[in-house]
Amino acid sequence: MRVNKPQLHPYGKYRCAMIKMIVAAMILCSPVKTFASIATGSRAQISEMNVLLVAVVVMLLIVIAYRERQLRRLHSRAYSSDQRFRKLYDAGLVGLIFTNLDGKVVEANKAFLDIIGYTKEDVKKGEVNWNKLTPPEYADITKEGVRQMHEQGYCSPFEKEYIRKDGRRVSIMLGSSRLAENDFAEAVTYVIDVSYKKQAELREQELNRTIKKQREELYSILMNAPAMIAIRRGPELRLEFSNKVASDFANLGSGLGLTTKELMEKFKVMADPQLSQEVYRTGVPFSAKAFHIQMDRVGNGKPEDIWLDMVLEPVYDADGNVDGVAFFGFDVTGLIKANEEVKESENRFRFLADAIPHKMWTSGPDGHATYYNKGWYDYTGVTDFKALNKRAWEIIHPDDFEAAKEAWTRVVKNGESLESEQRFLNTDGEYLWHLTRVYPHKDENGKVIMWVGTSTNIHEQKMTQEALKVSEEHFKAIANNNSIIIWQANGQGALIYVNDTWKNYTGFGISDDLLEQTLAAVHPDDVQAVVEKLGSEFQARTPLQTKFRFRNKEGQYRWVLTYANPLFNPEFAGYIGSIIDIDDQERAQKAASKLLKQRDEFLGVASHELKTPITSLKASMQILEKLSEKDFDPAKIRPFVAMANKQVGKLTDIVDDLLDVTRIQSGKMQLNCTNYLFSESVQDCINEIAQYTSSHQIVVNKNEPLEVYADRTRIEQVMVNFLSNAIKYSPEQNKVTVNIEKAGSNLKFSVTDFGIGIPQDKQAYIFDRFFRVHESSYNFSGLGLGLYISSEIIGRHGGKVGLVSEEGKGSTFWFTLPLTNKSEQV
């Protein structure tokens, strides 16, 4: 805490006043005594006056002594109080601050500084102000506190937030009291961190919201559950809740509040009323399948038969005591009646089974036959069921018997369906091919209750299929021995065949879903377009043709062209198509397009670059022509001559760049190399650039004196290009930096600007011929040749060029040159 200059205690002021009074009394004694002596001449009276004065003095001294003792006591108490306050101030239990009402914090203890994240140094610097710490939304309540301070000398405690030094907010509670006539501060304030309280309140609110949401979700689940749910509570089991299914089933919603007895009377229920009471009394659940009751659920006065799968569950209160019964049920009346109808239709089934042109049979869950239709008896010539049951396995061709027996055993064990082909012996002694299909019939629990099978004569189709198979083998042999991918899709759009070329190209094995596997190899950017194209053509049954990027087994995406025609047999049977790799043609076409685009851009930029100086040169010459017709004044003519020379220089630079490109392409660029001190050459380039620009300062940060063996003119051409570009592409800045350093056995020169930078996707092309970052803009002049020429010059010296750039922050262009064999740092 800051220590103020010593001030006189109020009691000290009072003591001084008393001493002044005594001195004044003693001074007044002499005139009074003299006046009395002259007036009366009585020594006795003078003596009495002296005694009176002495008595007054003594009394005053006694009062002074008493007051002195009181002052010492008050000082002692004040000191003790000050010590207690100091302990509270330093204890760090509560934040304490001395402030002015304008917001300035004069002094603060560590507890307060910890709350707001500032330091004592911040307080001393005047950087802590409770007005600035207060967020805008607490301005009104803060103004109210200041108003109370002005009017009543203190403000009632209230809560708000402070903004910490790190920007986070902290919840606090504060109270303040005004200091009377104190030049140190106007108020003292305590501040308490109540963040944990606020967080606890928020957690409590969140918990309450969660509980409310869970209750609502539970209610919604119960209300919208597909089962009937009803809850009854209390000894009389009054209906408290009925969900939508239960209400729709029997309008239970109209019975809310009724007891079990009243409900049974209302809906004319014929069932045991003690079931629910027994569950309520014992707490033991009750469940039943196909539980039969009679009930007037539609309110027409006519009870109907109803079968329910139901459960009665006890419901408990908060203390764990049974206080109700919950009903969960499904109406299975329809299923029960359906089972009865199934029995009635069994005879109809047998009649129909005998009429179909297939051999049909059924068996029990264990796989033993229970029925054969008329087709079996006619095919085998057997008339007895037992004889046919034995004969059914004997008529299977010996080559097919083991597979058929194994498949049937597996199907019965696993409850699966089956489709297989076998040859059966007929009455004429011929083995004919049959397609056998077997399906399990299961109950609601998934348990097989019977097997149903059919065997269809497919002998003619099989013979045709064998012939087609031979033809297909010939087709595959042809398809697999060429470089074109061949594929086939069926009428549903599934890819059913690919040749070996597909496998060799993609590196994939054959999977169950060839289409998904093929689409996985299509470039992600092309998948949607390919799917839409194939889908539309497939629906239209028209030939399709499209190209896309396809990944090969090396992981490279290459352009391919697919072409396919629809198949009809006579109905639509799918597509057969091919995929051809056209990547080389596609890349060549794109390269040609790119070159044409660069050519067109170059011609546009070149015409613009040439037109500007020519136009300016023409204007200068016209003005010179007019001036020459008048009186000759060199002072007037000189600026236009300079301008013309400048434009001629620009034209010369453009022509030189074009000639350099021609020399580079033809291999005729000559280098005149000598040993020279590189730093001197750099300074010459800086001086040259400085003649043409005053907007930028070129700062050499690092300048190691190194000697190189190179064509000085060509290297200076590169440096001037780097420096010119740095200035041109940082128009909003005023500085460019240069570094010259040794990098191993090379010299490294770099130029850094702080301008617009270069996008990441264009940096790889920055040294290409005709490349311009801002292709369609004339804001930055140039043909896109400077960096290309610079790269070629450095490359022919055995060096390298490169850049480091971030868009919006600037760029660094650098190149390296081999040091001479004898080079050392000079």
Automatic annotation (TrEMBL):
NCBIfam families, alphabetically? sensory_box (TIGR00229)
Domain (Histidine kinase): residue spans on this chain: 605-821
**Keywords carried by this UniProt record:** Kinase, Membrane, Phosphoprotein, Transferase, Transmembrane, Transmembrane helix
Enzyme kind, highest EC tier = transferase
InterPro entries linked:
HATPase_C_sf, HATPase_dom, His_kinase_dom, HisK_dim/P_dom, HisK_dim/P_sf, PAC, PAS, PAS-assoc_C
Provide the GO MF annotations for this entry. phosphorelay sensor kinase activity
One short Pfam name that applies is HisKA
Residues forming the PAC domain are 418-470, 544-594
- Protein name according to UniProt: histidine kinase
Q: Which Gene3D superfamilies match?
A: 1.10.287.130, Histidine kinase-like ATPase, C-terminal domain, PAS domain
Domain of life of the organism encoding this protein: Bacteria
Q: Which reaction does it catalyse?
A: ATP + protein L-histidine = ADP + protein N-phospho-L-histidine
| Organism of derivation | Mucilaginibacter ginsenosidivorans
Looking at the record, the residues that make up the PAS domain are 81-153, 345-415, 471-541
Enzyme Commission numbers on file: 2.7.13.3
Residues passing through the membrane, by range: 21-40, 46-66
